[in-house]
Amino acid sequence: MPAPTHTPAAPAAPPTPQRPGRIKAELPWWALALPTAAFVVLLSLVLDPADAHAVSGRVPLLDVLVQLRQALPF
Description:
The chain is mainly α. Helices cover 41% and strands 0% of the residues. The protein is elongated, with a radius of gyration of 27 Å. The model has no long low-confidence stretch (mean pLDDT 76). Keywords: Membrane, Transmembrane, Transmembrane helix. Residues 1-20 are annotated as: Disordered. The chain crosses the membrane at residues 27-47.
């Protein structure tokens, strides 16, 4: 049974004239605001010296490697 074809409801808008060699890109406001806000929040978490604590002698990289070894099936 053939599938029905759909025709567009309205014809496509004619292309707008542009300068040759230029690409027109329009982004919504949040496309720049959200990554900027996330960067500022993460940077403030990293740079806050009040939350800095002394290391208890354990190596964090070693903990990660132990977790990886336990997760892998060999």
